[in-house]
Amino acid sequence: MPNHVDQLERLKSALADRYRIERELGAGGMATVYLAEDLKHKRKVALKVLKPELAAVLGAERFVQEITTTASLQHPHILALFDSGEAGGFLYYVMPFIEGETLRDKLDREKQLGIEEAVRITTEVADALDYAHRNAVIHRDIKPENILLHDGRPMVADFGIALAVSAAAGGRMTETGLSLGTPHYMSPEQATAEKDLTNRSDIYSLGAVLYEMLTGSPPHVGSSAQQIIMKIVTDEARPVTELRKSVPSNVAAATAKALEKLPVDRFERACKFAEALIDPTFAIPTTTTEAASIATRRWKWLSAALGSIAVALSFMIVWGPRRTAELRSPARYDVGLPDSARMRMNYFPGFAVSPAGDFVVYVAEREGSTELWYHSLWDDATRPIAGTDGATNPTISPLGDRVAFYSGGELKTVPVMGGSVSRIARVEVPADAVAPRWMTATQLLVPDGNGTRLRWLDPETGTEEVTPVDTCHLPYPISDDRILCSQAGEQYAIVRRLDDGSETWLRALSSDTDTSVSILRGGHFRLVDGEYLVYLSIEGEIRAVRWDTSTSLVGRPVTLVPGVRREPYTGVGQWDLSATGTLVYAGGANAQVGQLVRRYDADPPEPLPIEPAAFRRLDLSRDGRWLAAVVQGIREQELRIYDLKSLRVQRWLRGFQFSNLLWTPSNDSLIVLATRVDGASVTLIGSPTAPTPPDTLFHGTFVPRSFISDDIVLGYDGNGLSMTLRRSVAPVQVDTFLNRATQFPALSSDNRWLIFAPSGSAQLLLTRYPEKDRQFELTPNGFQPRWLTKREIVFYRCCWDVYRSQVDETQAVPTIEPRLWFSDPRFTDLEQQAYAVTPDGGLIYMQTPPERLAPYLRVIPDWVEQMKRAVDEANR
After folding, report:
1. pLDDT tens-digit series, residues 501-522
2. Residue 146 exposed, middle or buried by CB count within 10 Å (0-12, 13-18, 19+)
3. Is the pTM of this model over 0.85?
4. Going by C-beta distance under 8 Å and a sequence separation of 6 or more, which residues neighbour residue 147?
5. DSSP bridge pairs for 46
6. Secondary structure element (H or E) that encloses residue 253, with its range
């Protein structure tokens, strides 16, 4: 008792400047919970302090790094994370204090819940889980204790805490004597100590919670943790209708499917579980053939699980402080990176793995710049590579002796073991360019010109061949005359022929039993052994699929590795494969999903009360009330209209790729360029508040950018030719505006100055309107200019520096001096419309999740063989 009192006093003293601890609320397996007052914000909070034995093996910096992944989760059924950190040797995190009770308290009192109430709680928790899973966060510890009831509304607590603790421990949880997850609600794969859990593990746990709400008992009970875990792995749960006959058949079937032993037999997503619970027609197929197939799969899985369950149980219960480094499983392991040289993760691939899978070369952040570092995957050897200041996009030669990289607008090479740096060629490296690729020891494939040309360079002689292409990002050759391209921003795969430039979109069978076909969504595609397509899904999962490259149809994708860091806009994943089949990746949030913020002057950005999403384009009405935003979904884009006054959201249009948004001066209508799946484009105009669908303003490609008057729209066509469109006449009148290809033309509010960029260039030009004859350079390097006021321009430079420039027109040659407004590493480069300008001179833009540096890499030897077996099994 004295020790506990002493610890509490030390804790109070350590946090005295931030929190006033009032009393203990309870204690769990990992943390003790206190009621505290947040002194700065004058509010009650729940302060959770990790158990000392657990904190002893966790580095404070790494724990905080991991837990910040969950800080960006904002959902009505997720309890927010306010704060986290280390103080006086204690690791803690802070959440809102919710008046009410936990679901455990309610079940202890009532034993069983009404069916409608149980289904409602489950569907609302499933909605929270689905949102988190789409943001690459898995809870890992869903149980009644972690579901708070506030006025009857469920709030999921401790989201991602189990993952943060596990990842921060670096595989050393056994040293604490504790295990993650509560035995009654563990999925079979969690019970057998699988390290990489998927979203289906959470679905199982939620199914177990629903089972208890309906029947009064978890699916499996026992007198010890070992006994419960053995039953979870080997025994089938009794059907809920045997214990409660009034449970509807669809609810019973959905519960049974959620509790399947094999993850692949459960619901693919939590939202599908929720849909089944409210669909009275839902049932599990019971044909003899399918039953036999399920039984066979279960037996194969059970045989493997039983072979490891004794080891898993001893891992979780018996071992402890005696565990040493040599006991680490060779199946997968983590490689820590030096605290002083963490890997930068922003837009570009952060590392490359050697062909032999024995080392990586990664981009280390060093004093505000970058530098390439070598790190062995077999031991702790690590060191900087001299001469690589400012380097990005490393790639290692087939012999493993040299690394190519970009630096200072040049392609360079350097020996991996150190030596002189060779300059190969000048390159353009915009935000969507990716690493060069060694095709042979004497040939590098270099994407350049914003994906509009492929350069085949000899690093020894500097000789090259150039292949023009119509936009190809992350190119991957699949034959002499065809190349696989990822389309940045839109996130799909196409095959381009190099001889005639024709393109074919890849399409995939939908998952489970659905026989429909849709565009294969994702990025960072890579062909393995000529028949397995590996890629990063838009949810941040590494997936693989069989592909006969003579067709455009692939099989059913299989999810293999969740939670891989996915970069904004480019869709680049922080993963790489060695020639020997080793997978190396950095875990992290899906940075294509972000939070909208509003920013003025030098003040910190203020989050908008809008749920994070994969925002693609933004435009704000001139009165500042209506925010139009394109959101990338799993299968299609959605055009949403946010009312910033009432905070209501309208999902206005879907089924298109939306290329640009422009509110009319009257604030009541929106013009949008929309492209159908068949490639046909139309420019639409309509009022989101009207009951009728939008009208077609123009058949073909017209990108609306600015208004010359209420009637005349300024934009450009599919070739970039600047043009105006008069919308009051029928048919619509289209005229050439500038006799050159342009991007981003915009007029000042008083129609006196025009800014634009020559097509394919980062140069920004300024000219008087309507003369348009003399053109002045605003900057040789800038993107997406917009008028902040009638004489002030805003633009940004790669990748997060935002500038403003005042136009002084008192001289014959206007004075234009760009100055840095702010630098935000979380600023996101969205294609065409990265931000919206507010009426009072502010910006609305999307921030990526806070993580930017990777503290470790995960290594899975022989992963390619595992991938092949999984894909072959799933497509039988």
Report:
1. 788 888 887 654 445 677 888 8
2. buried
3. no
4. 102, 103, 104, 121, 125, 154, 155, 156, 157, 209
5. 35, 95
6. helix 249-258
